[in-house]
Amino acid sequence: MQIPVTKLPTALDNPYEWMLKQLHDVPNIDVGDVRSIQIRCVIRVLEETMDNVKSALLLPKLLSLPQNAFKVLIGSKYEPGKRLVDDYMRRRQLIVKKQQAPLSDQYLIRILDYFHRNPDVFNMFPDVTLTPEDHQMLNIFALLLRISKIHLNRSSKTEINQERLLQKVYQKNEKLKDTIIQLQATLESQKSQMESKLTTKEVYLQKCEQALELQQKEHLRRIESESEKCKCLIQENQKTIAAKQNLLEAELKTLSETYNTQTKTNGVECKRVYAEKVKEQMQAEAAIKKYEHTIGSKMLECLDIEDLFSVEQDKLDQLMLIHSEVEREYNKIVVSRETLQEQNKKKVIHLYMMNRAARKIQDYWRRYRKALIMKRRKSKRKSKKWA
Question: CA-CA distances (angstroms) from residue 154 to 35, 126, 147, 148?
Fold first, then answer.
């Protein structure tokens, strides 16, 4: 009769799987506790596999240079690993010398078991260089461990909260879509309104341009008429001044001729009548004084007339400068439409200045005529007195 033996977990079986089976057989155990134990078991398995991969990558490099491994392990808490490595190297040298086929090497299995039990021993070998592929594999296992921890540690509450957040985000996106559609419709309506406003503004601008052209033509006509009037006045003044100058020159000639005749007659009379020399000399001196007085007054009148002419010429130059300034202001009006009101004010101001200048010229001209008339009257009175 054979005795039934219960199967115990061996080294080849998975101990975590056996432990989970035993937990399921336990009565009155909480499902949450079972899940937490399962999560810890899975994470432990992943961590052990990562340590196994690291040992599988680093052990061949350490065994290829055992002297470096001996230097690091001597004097540390992992010094028993030195003895295992030493036994493995002596066993390997014997196999190489005798050229025997290697059997299942228990020394290598012991080294593997020791390094699997103590995965922190690899932190003592930072100088061991790995290939880029090895680094990539370790990074992949680390990423897998991190992702699995995140996924396993998630609870139903967090999932529900995430779903709620996603639902809120979706609703907000839908509202945003509706608002975008409404904004697009309002934009279209605003565009149509702006286009209609622009058309009305263009029509208004065309009307303003036409009115500007009419005003410019009217101003040009006024300027031309005023300039023609000024030219006519200047020509008349020049004619009158020339006529007066001719009259004065004729009077000068006549006076000079009379003076010459008088001097001749006086000389003859002095030769003939020596007795009346003093008397005739006194008369001659009186005549000379009268002549000088009349000639001096006439010369002063001529100088006054020339001064008045120069003053009028300066005023004409000022009027021409004002006319050029008006032309420049007109060009500015054509160029800038936005400053229409200010330029219209300037035009009104300049027109007022021109009218004022014209009135001033007319006043000066009236005064000048009055002065001439008064001078003529005075000259006539003096001539009557002398006569």
Answer: 11, 35, 11, 10
Q: What is the pLDDT of residues 4-37, one digit of tens each?
A: 333 333 433 455 455 555 555 555 555 556 677 7
Domain presence at residue 310 = yes
**Which of 139, 155, 171 is the last residue in one of the domains?**
155
The reply to whether 76 and 203 lie within a common domain is no
Does some domain include residue 177? no
Give residue-wise pLDDT tens across range 152-198.
777 667 767 777 888 888 888 889 889 999 998 888 888 888 888 88
Q: Which residue, chain included where needed, has tokens 């001659």?
A: 284
Q: Pick from 155, 178, 196: which residue ends a domain?
A: 155
Tell me how many domains the chain contains: 2
